[in-house]
Q: What sequence folds into this?
């Protein structure tokens, strides 16, 4: 096998109740049900050494069977994607109102068996938290991947769309964690990607979307707003121009008839140089609605990104604040978007830093469908060369109280439709996959992909539960292995935060590729990402007396962030400009805290390495060695971060470390 199976390894298990499962009965030949049957056969034969046969004939009484039963009249009970697992004598029943529900139920049963959970504990009804659980791939048609750290694309090569057995294994992997929508191409739509919406690609897209359909996944494409111009059809892309509108209407008619199972389109407009409605004096709502009208007859959706900001700023100008721009651009448009438009909002107001406050736009738009966007690919969190388990960060975001109303005000409520009753909402994440044999480059980075899927399905799962599940399915159920890897994962985000940029200030990375320390890398640039450190203080005053960003939050978040005494310290420098002598709750000065955390972060990585070494011999040797190699690199690199950051502040301030440790000066 040229590629690995990650959490679908289906190791042999010594399953206590040892069910014989001679027969898999299914009452429907829906393509998702047939995928479920296939997966059950693969999983059960590998894990339990049995080879059940499948049929749509009712099982005999004496047979121990798994029964996959679609109950179309039970939509209210199970929803479009939910399922029930029930025990009935010798039989296990998976009941659902749709084929997708049967598929998710089957993956859940297999997951339970793989983790040796007793059958009784697997019983019950389960439904996803977020209706849309999307992956966004930033894959380009030449095979490269923007911010990809796991090889090249397995969707594209030399301007062709690839559909092969790896595509099917991808669909199995992501469907098994509940993903129901995938955007295959980069939001920066350039070169041949512009032509994805032309007949040149329809046959291969049809093949791909049919493969996806069998795993309950809708295909989405990123769209070029200027396609009418870039495909040489028209001289304008003005959404108010009737020629433009009818061009899009015809285009959508054409592509939806040629490519079944197409969910719709994702658009990055007027953002970092991408074309958009601003060029014609139109709003984002004007642009999105034009496309929404064109896809509506086919049940399609338009997902419009809110990553809109001025990327031509002057660092000398302290009045402009990039953090404010998402809210400033979109809030005035609340209520203007059509029902089949959803706004995709990055988790923070800047750009996937190791620590950011939750975007104030989430929850604020009461009459607009919202999707939370997170980043699995570790652009700013170590590029898969550092272990950084991101599930705890995403959990914090989902649990955040926006105070947009008295109840059901957490981000999780907003994006699951509980707050405002939306149907089109959910989560999207930038994928971390590529064509490396282990899919994610770093073996431990697969925990983030797995964790994203599981969390978007069930926002109540804890980071520890998800980690332990993933470790058991991927590596081994040996308690020493589970404990060691789980400890590494759980300590990794805090460690990364400690040895990189402090207290929510972000950035301090090398420009362009964003890897490694460079404290002033973006300081005098046009991107609006400044720390403004001088010899006395650091941080940006975003309070009501500063840029006014804090005012974008509902009360009491506004007051909490606005006051330096109540602002959560992990975000102190995001919201406030603070003197190096400022005393933190720990009793330490700000500067001493910076020094200390940078030493601690490196020690944390040392501890991770010894934990990893403790499982030598208990997991596959190749995986052990290649991960050890990455961890050793991480240690070196964490030391570089520590020394560059600490030296920078020592040179700025001339204040020594209280503990007299070596700061390279
Ligand atoms: C796909 C950041 C990244 C870009 C990315 C952009 C976005 O700026 O560095 O690579 O572009 O975000 O989310 O659109």
A:
């Amino acid at each position: 096998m040229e590629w690995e199976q990650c959490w679908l390894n289906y190791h042999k298990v010594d399953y206590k109740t040892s069910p014989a499962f001679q027969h898999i009965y299914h009452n429907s030949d829906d393509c998702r049900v047939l995928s479920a049957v296939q997966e059950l056969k693969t999983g059960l034969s590998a894990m339990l050494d049995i080879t059940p046969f499948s049929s749509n004939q009712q099982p005999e009484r004496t047979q121990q069977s798994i029964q996959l039963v679609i109950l179309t009249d039970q939509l209210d009970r199970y929803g479009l994607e939910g399922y029930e697992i029930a025990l009935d004598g010798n039989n296990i029943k998976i009941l659902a109102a749709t084929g997708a529900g049967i598929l998710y139920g089957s993956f859940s049963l297999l997951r339970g068996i793989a983790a040796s959970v007793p059958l009784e504990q697997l019983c019950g009804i389960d439904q996803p938290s977020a209706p849309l659980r999307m992956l966004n791939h930033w894959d380009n048609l030449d095979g490269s991947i923007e911010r990809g750290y796991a090889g090249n694309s397995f969707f594209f090569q030399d301007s062709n769309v690839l559909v092969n057995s790896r595509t099917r294994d991808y669909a199995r992997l992501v469907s098994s964690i509940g993903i129901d929508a995938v955007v295959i191409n980069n939001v920066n739509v350039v070169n041949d990607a512009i032509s994805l919406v032309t007949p040149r690609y329809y046959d291969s897209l049809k093949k791909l979307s049919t493969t996806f359909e069998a795993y309950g996944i809708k295909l989405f494409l990123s769209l070029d707003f200027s396609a009418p111009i870039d495909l040489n059809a028209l001289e304008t892309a003005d959404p108010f121009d009737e020629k433009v509108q009818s061009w899009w209407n015809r285009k959508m008619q054409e592509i939806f008839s040629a490519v079944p199972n197409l969910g719709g389109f994702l658009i990055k407009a007027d953002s970092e140089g991408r074309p958009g409605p601003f060029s014609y004096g139109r709003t984002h709502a004007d642009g999105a609605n034009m496309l929404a009208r064109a896809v509506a007859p086919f049940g399609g959706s338009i997902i419009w990104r809110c990553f809109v900001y001025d990327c031509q700023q002057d660092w000398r100008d302290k009045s402009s604040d990039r953090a404010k721009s998402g809210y400033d651009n979109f809030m005035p448009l609340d209520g203007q978007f059509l029902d089949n438009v959803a706004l995709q909002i990055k988790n923070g107001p800047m750009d996937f830093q190791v620590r950011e406050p939750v975007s104030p736009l989430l929850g604020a738009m009461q009459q607009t469908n919202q999707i939370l966007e997170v980043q699995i690919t570790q652009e700013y969190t170590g590029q898969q060369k550092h272990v950084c388990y991101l599930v705890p960060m995403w959990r914090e975001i989902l649990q955040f109280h926006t105070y947009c109303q008295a109840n059901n005000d957490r981000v999780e409520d907003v994006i699951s439709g509980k707050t405002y009753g939306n149907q089109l909402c959910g989560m999207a994440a930038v994928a971390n996959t590529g064509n490396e044999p282990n899919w994610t480059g770093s073996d431990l980075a697969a925990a983030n992909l797995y964790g994203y899927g599981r969390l978007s399905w069930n926002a109540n799962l804890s980071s520890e539960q998800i980690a332990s599940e993933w470790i058991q399915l991927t590596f081994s159920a040996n308690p020493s292995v589970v404990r060691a890897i789980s400890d590494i994962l759980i300590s990794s985000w805090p460690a990364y935060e400690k040895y990189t940029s402090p207290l929510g200030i972000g950035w301090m990375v090398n420009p362009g590729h964003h890897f490694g320390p460079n404290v002033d890398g973006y300081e005098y640039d046009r991107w609006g990402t400044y720390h403004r450190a001088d010899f006395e203080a650091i941080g940006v005053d975003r309070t009501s007396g500063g840029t006014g960003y804090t005012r974008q939050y509902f009360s009491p978040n506004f007051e909490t962030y606005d006051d330096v005494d109540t602002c959560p310290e992990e975000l102190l420098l995001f919201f406030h400009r603070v003197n190096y002598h400022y005393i933190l709750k720990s009793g330490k000065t700000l500067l001493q805290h910076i020094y200390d955390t940078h030493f601690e972060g490196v020690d944390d990585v040392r501890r991770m390495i010894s934990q990893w070494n403790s499982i030598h011999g208990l997991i596959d040797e190749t995986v052990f060695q290649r991960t050890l190699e990455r961890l050793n690199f991480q240690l070196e690199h964490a030391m570089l971060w520590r020394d560059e950051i600490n030296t920078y502040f020592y040179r700025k301030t001339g204040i020594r470390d209280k503990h007299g440790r070596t700061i390279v000066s």
